[in-house]
């Protein structure tokens, strides 16, 4: 079985990678789960997707407790160093629809600074897998932060 800590962020394209909420600047966007791909008996591992648990604390970004799942898919061969393959799905709505003090801008169709001109948000994440939560040794992690965003504002299918 495996433990997963999954952090994500919506950041500006040129911003350094971070996982802090743009809504309040304090909450780290984070999920975790234990028991991914557990042994169902006889060495057969579960392929059932498992819901990730959202972080405890200030979660201004949170819209749905079961908005992220992870599933064990397979184990590689000896030639592939027995690598494990997982699939993470994360569904969410970008919130808030507007920030305090921006209502008149919304009413007058003035875009927030995050979406004016070529400004936009991109999705970044860090997945940290381990056999247990309590021992950080042996953690395998992957950070994906190189895909540019193209999030649109009202009535835009992409930014611009």
Could you characterize the architecture of this molecule?
The protein is mainly β. It has one domain (2-95, 121-144). The chain contains one helix and ten strands. It has one helix at 103-107, and strands at 2-12, 30-36, 39-41, 44-45, 50-51, 53-54, 68-75, 84-90, 121-130, 140-144. The strands form three sheets. Strands 6-2-1-9-10 form a five-stranded antiparallel beta sheet, with no helix packed on it. A hairpin with an 8-residue loop joins strand 7 (68-75) and strand 8 (84-90). It starts with a strand and ends in a 16-residue tail after the last strand.
The major beta sheet can be summarized as: 5 strands, antiparallel
Percentage of residues assigned to helices: under 10%
Q: Give the total of beta strands.
A: 10
Structural class computed from helices and strand pairing: mainly beta
Rg to the nearest angstrom? 19 Å
Instruction: Using the alpha-carbon principal axes, give the shape.
Output: elongated
Mean pLDDT across all amino acids? 84
- Give the SSE string: EEEEEEEEHEE
End-to-end span in angstroms? 45 Å
What's the total helix number? Answer: 1
Strands ordered across the widest β-sheet: 6-2-1-9-10
Approximate strand percentage: 35-45%
Number of domains: 1
Weakly predicted, low-confidence segments: none
Concise description?
With 160 residues, the chain is mainly beta.
Please tag this protein with its features:
elongated, 5-stranded antiparallel beta sheet, 3% helix, 160 residues, mainly beta
Mind sketching the topology for me?
Elements: E1 2-12, E2 30-36, E3 39-41, E4 44-45, E5 50-51, E6 53-54, E7 68-75, E8 84-90, H1 103-107, E9 121-130, E10 140-144
Antiparallel strand pairs: 1-2, 1-9, 2-6, 3-4, 5-7, 7-8, 9-10
């Amino acid at each position: 079985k495996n433990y997963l800590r999954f952090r994500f962020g919506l950041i500006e394209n040129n911003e350094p990678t971070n996982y802090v909420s743009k809504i309040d600047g304090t909450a780290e966007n984070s999920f975790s789960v234990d028991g991914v791909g557990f042994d169902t008996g006889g060495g057969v591992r579960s392929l059932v997707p498992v819901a990730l648990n959202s972080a405890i604390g200030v979660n201004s970004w949170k819209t749905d407790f079961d908005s992220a799942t992870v599933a064990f898919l397979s184990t590689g061969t000896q030639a592939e160093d027995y690598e494990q393959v997982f699939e993470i799905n994360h569904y969410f709505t970008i919130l808030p629809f507007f920030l305090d003090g921006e209502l008149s801008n919304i009413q007058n169709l003035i875009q927030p600074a995050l979406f004016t001109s070529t400004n936009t948000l991109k999705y970044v994440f860090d997945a940290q897998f381990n056999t247990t939560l309590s021992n950080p040794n042996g953690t395998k992690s992957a950070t994906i932060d190189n895909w540019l965003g193209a999030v649109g504002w009202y009535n835009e299918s992409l930014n611009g």
